[in-house]
Amino acid sequence: MVKVLVAENITPWPHSTYASISKQLPMLFLDKASKYRRWQDAQALLIGKLLLKRGLNEFGFQDFLLENIQYNAFNRPYINARELDFNISHAGQYVICALSKQHRVGVDIEQVHPVDLQDFATCFTGPELDRLSRSPEFLFDFFNIWTIKEAVIKADGRGLQIPLQQFEAGEQIKLGDNLWHTHTLKIADGYISHLATNNALSEPVVIQKVLIS
């Protein structure tokens, strides 16, 4: 099973909410959040950790301490026991966290907004660039391809060390010895999101909304 927890990040928290949340998270994350200039980014970081904590509880890892999260050489976070994988993404007014005991996961969400294809020419293959340049639904196709690629490289764990123009977006993507399966997530209007897993899924992804308070 893969579960995707979703929370809104619409307005700055009042002091009472921030005080309550401060008691739920390790100081290292609070310190990191305090260094962001934009409240949206600071809250997104904290919401992501709150969603992770919620997910860990739901998967039976109530005793795991968030300060024990480890990171690989490419800064991908993971739980040392490797009995559960997770990945977090945020954009605009939403933060999402994917978790699974059975699968390696990567997730990406983007808010649809105007972009200039030339600024991203090195991120797409030749056929993708040709398709995008002729697309009657350019923004939809752009962010559809983009979130697929981002989800896959996040699941892989090497991030942008994998050149995006070296593989094409699709329902299945081969990277080295790994075959990744991609899945569309319906989060909200105006947003496009994808999940990548190292195995085909035998059941639908569970998308669960979480109220942060």
How does this structure look, described?
By secondary structure, the protein is α+β, with helices and mostly antiparallel strands. Helix content is 30%, strand content 26%. The chain has one domain: 4'-phosphopantetheinyl transferase domain (Ribosomal Protein L22, Chain A), CATH 3.90.470. The strands form three sheets. Strands 4-5-1-10 form a four-stranded mixed β-sheet, with helices on one face. Strands 6-9-8-7 form a four-stranded antiparallel β-sheet, covered by helices on one side. It starts with a strand and ends with a strand. The mean pLDDT is 96.
Topology (elements, then pairings):
Layout: E1 2-8, H1 15-22, H2 27-34, H3 39-58, E2 70-71, E3 77-78, E4 85-91, E5 94-100, E6 105-111, H4 126-134, H5 138-156, E7 172-175, E8 178-185, E9 191-197, E10 206-209
Parallel strand pairs: 1-10
Antiparallel strand pairs: 1-5, 2-3, 4-5, 6-9, 7-8, 8-9
Helix pairs in contact: 2-3, 4-5
Main attributes of the structure:
213 residues, alpha+beta, Ribosomal Protein L22, Chain A, four-stranded mixed sheet, four-stranded antiparallel sheet, 5 helices
Concise structural overview:
Helices cover 30% and strands 26% of the residues.
What is the name of the CATH architecture? Alpha-Beta Complex
* Name of the top-level CATH class: Alpha Beta
Strand content: 25-35%
Taking all residues together, what is the mean pLDDT? 96
